[in-house]
Please model this.
Amino acid sequence: MKRRTLGAALAALGLAALATAPAQAAGKKLTIALIPGLTTDAFYITMHKGAQAAADALGDTLVFQGAPEFNAVLQVPVLDAVIARHPDAILIAPTDKVQLIQPLKKAIDAGIKVITVDTFIGTGKYQTGSGDADFPLSYVASDNILGGQIAARALAKAIGDKGKVYVSNVKPGVSTTDQREEGFKEEMKNHPGITVLTTQFNDDDANKAASQLQSVLARNPDLAGVFGANLFSALGAANGVKQAGKAGAIKVAAFDAPKSIVEQLKSGLVDMAIAQHPSEIGYFGVVAAHAALTGHSIPTAIGTGFTVITKDNVDDPNVSRFLYSD
Amino acid sequence: MSTTATVAARQSSRVPLLAALAAARAWLFLIVLITVFEIWARVSFGASFVGNLFNLRSVAVFAVAPLLLAIGQTFVIISGGIDLSVGFTMGLAAIVLAHTVNLATPALGTGAGLLVGVAVAVLASMIPGVVNGLLIARLRVPPFIGTLGMYGVARGVAFLLAGGTTVPVSNAALNYIGNGQLAGFPVVVLLTVLALLVLHYLLSQSKFGQYTYAVGGNRAAAVRAGINVRSVTIRLYVLSAVCAGIGGILYTGRFSAGAAQAGEPLLLDSIAAVVIGGASLFGGSGTIVGTLIGALIVAVIQYGLVFINVEPFWQFVAVGVVIIISVLVDQSQRRLGGGRVDE
Model:
């Protein structure tokens, strides 16, 4: 598909013989669009910065467009509008594993290369020749299962490898937070002294997450720790701990690390934050798109790292650079 | 409408006991709910639900934020309107407070810094209220549309001011308001009780309260009776916005951070509280006490289901079922008690 569009352009230049040559060879500036899960989140804002840095370094143009909420109904029109502008490649954090498959096929049909970042469609395994959602070229993201495992290890250590813990999660069906929970529970199986209680879903409402912590605590006075699978889950749970007068006694692990987490770490409200590297995701997403557009093969999955931030290391510049900037 | 009301009134006088029961049904419903949780907790794991002070305190703190949105909303709903913008007005106030306190505290000290922050946040929350009121009262924009537009505007401005992230704030006095206790009672709960008392007085005893019912009951009649409906309407939406603003201030105190999306998930819970509390979405009826009970019902279900360890997916179902049952009971109350049936 890509070849057909390119071919038309190049034929007009009388270079039909070079129709299979990479776009860059024609001296055309590549346009890469980044569509985040939502625009109002420090995680994606940081990803945008990383993507911009890579685009600047490679001489590409980056377009950043998204919906204000993490919602497929709102994201699809944005995607359609971006496809209509016909960039060379789209980097997208799909807001639903299934609902975004058909809309993204339209991009492929238009000859646009698709790479998913942070979240995925289908199974997240691409270019396998199986299923109807293997068409994106690559999935660039933190391994969220690994992130959940790292959180579990850090929390287990903090509570001395025994007691009850639970996961405070946003809502079911979101690929990344589901995987964090999965990884967390998987790792906790290696810690026989720790019991994992039922997961509580808070709809991204800190107030509800706080209330749930208190209710779980009322039922389980020996609660030792909680894993907040995203920012508001963690802030809510931390407040529940504080209101219950259990600060320090119940350990709180937070996934994600916006700048506001520093205050919470220093005040002891949150004991550890698992930072993803969104800037790295944006940077390598753009690099992968550029490589694919200039005729290079790229890996079908690129995993980015994690950093565990605590009160003790948050002032170290090698750690604090992983705080999400705004 | 008046014929229906008279007929219904006659019917209700025939069955006074049923009518009395129906009038107290929100209370009864709350008591039934608590009893179910109490029995379940005792039978399944030998603990008490209400006998545990920690539970009571937790439910009270949980109910604070939706309740603050709901009490202002009660006035608006009684007047026949609706305010969809409250969630983001709350977020706007939270962000403005966080920024102002961060700026003012180093210069003025903890107490004065907080006072300045609160004053600016309350003023900021009034802006969406005034605009809502003007749109609805002067330009005759339907409340649903006008406040939906303001929902978007307040949201955008709040996120712009916040730079798309949460704004951490550090001020000991604000932290005390959010997480402190006075004589064993959480400060947020005491402040909310104060707001409840003031608004209950305003609705049930003041002229403004009477006008609110009059505008919602029959707008044309209210105009003919010489009530300045426009001015009342504007004040209603400002009141709703200020309540939401106070909600945002308490939220920022609790979580030591302002968040633009703080109130977003609370809008539906708060409207549910008002309706469960007996207010009609068609205007003309509702009370602050009813809304309080409604908010407690919503909070008790959500807290209680976690306490008795119900599977999370069943929690969604249970909350929905309770809301439907509650409104069904309300409809039958209206048939018996002489109120208007929403059909």
Remarks:
- Residues 153 and 164 of chain A are 14 Å apart (CA to CA).
